[in-house]
Specification:
Length: 171
């Protein structure tokens, strides 16, 4: 017989550690499928880099970036946490799909993993990054301050410097 302070072998132990927002499987009461994490919509390769960076920041703030980059993999289907992981994974998929255009979203609806959706979007829209990189470099070389304030000019210049980093592969 076990004492009241000692859980038996049949008592699930996993809920205690996912009740904190430090755990990737934690869902806040306000987290819902209709939530839009970022206001910009992915429309194609022309805005993929800025969309990706914005969504990375939002997912990181919710401690869900590890779900899309594959660092937190799905547990085995017979593991007690699988159902919870599936729920969080589905939530993250809806958050991603809420930030892409309808044309793109319709194609992604049938993927079962947030990591697969994330990788598919990366493969599809960062594949043209060579052309985008060239266009960014060309715009950088043509950039002039003109009548713009120094702050505005510098922000534009910094954006051109940072864009190739955002276009690089990976999460």
């Amino acid at each position: 017989m076990t004492s009241p302070s000692t859980p038996s072998d049949t008592t699930p132990q996993y809920p205690n550690f996912i009740d904190t927002n430090a755990h990737p499987l934690f869902l806040h009461n306000n987290d819902q499928p209709g939530m839009v994490l970022i206001s910009k919509k992915l429309t194609g390769s022309e805005n993929y880099a800025s969309w990706k960076r914005s969504l990375q920041i939002a997912l990181s703030a919710k401690n869900k970036l590890v779900i899309v980059n594959g660092d937190f993999v799905a547990p085995a289907m017979d593991f007690p946490l699988y159902a919870h992981w599936k729920r969080v994974n589905d939530m993250v998929i809806t958050w991603i799909l809420n930030t892409v255009s309808d044309d793109i979203s319709n194609i992604m609806n049938y993927m079962d993993s947030a990591a697969l959706v994330w990788n598919e979007l990366s493969e599809r829209f960062s594949a043209v990054s060579g052309h985008k990189f060239y266009e960014t470099q060309r715009a950088l070389f043509k950039l002039e301050q003109g009548n713009d304030s120094f702050e505005f000019y510098f922000n534009k210049l910094k954006g051109f410097w940072d864009e190739p980093i955002a276009l690089s592969p990976g999460v």
